[in-house]
Amino acid sequence: MPYLDDPLIVFTDLDGSLLDHHDYSWAPAQGWLDQLAEHNIPVIITTSKTSAEVSALQHTLKLNHLPFIAENGALIQLAGGDNPAHHLIGADYQHIRDVLVDLRKRYDFEFRGFGDVTPQQVADWTGLTLTNARLAMQRDASEPLMWFGNTLDFSRMEKLLREEGLALTRGGRFWHVMGQDAGKGQAVRWLAEQYQQQRDQAMVTLGLGDGPNDISMLEAVDFAVVILGHHDQDMPLNKEDRNVYRTTRHGPEGWRQGLDHFIAIK
């Protein structure tokens, strides 16, 4: 069990985890955020949200001095100054859009991505404000989809995307199309290695997430908190039970519950 004075990194999903699924509040988690900050423990946002969305939220959460992982691991933004570097994993957004438009034209697949609709439609789908919906549409390396077709067509599209080097990942509200090499787990491992090299010591990693797109992140960390989700998807993990905690509460209340369980205070 990690302590607050251990070389600890916390990786956290946002929607349905640190942020409430309905109103996007993180109030129940604020006490732990304060304690982690006091002990200089990095809290690394690891989310399907875009760089533009996370950058705005980081300032509010007072995490803007830290790197973050965006678009389900397809993009890592490193900390540093007014123009921080990006580390892109997999395909870029324009390539993804070109492939999707081509497949829809050829096979009449029934879906809509963020690149097909207005900011108002994205706001209606997500419950975001119009301003935040526009930030959600500023994408670099992944495309969220609403699927309206049948399961046979979906399987066919998934196969065709694989042939193009792309993959579908299930999120809380959407399916996300991104490069096959991308994913939260890969991004978490890469960033944890950067911290280890900088500090010249092994890092202890803890991850918190609620959805299927968080599984690779939860597999990549030492201690995993599976937050009770607003979905009916299985969340299987190949880890020892003592390193996994499944909360009984949703969102930031579950987030707090997970840290209460794992982090010992001397």
In round numbers, the mean pLDDT is 94
Low-confidence segments? none
Tell me the number of helical segments per DSSP (H or I, 4 or more residues long): 9
CATH homologous superfamily descriptor of the largest domain: HAD superfamily/HAD-like
Query: What is the oligomeric state here?
Result: single chain
Largest sheet, strands/sense/barrel: 5 strands, parallel
Helix content: 25-40%
Pfam family, one: Hydrolase_3
Keywords: Hydrolase, Magnesium, Metal-binding
Protein name: Mannosyl-3-phosphoglycerate phosphatase
Provide a brief overview of the structure:
This protein is 36% helix and 21% strand. It has 266 residues and is an alpha/beta fold. The model has no long low-confidence stretch (mean pLDDT 94).
Features of this protein?
single chain; 266 residues; alpha/beta; Rossmann fold; Threonyl-tRNA Synthetase, Chain A, domain 2; 2 domains; 5-stranded parallel beta sheet; 4-stranded antiparallel beta sheet; 36% helix; 21% strand; globular
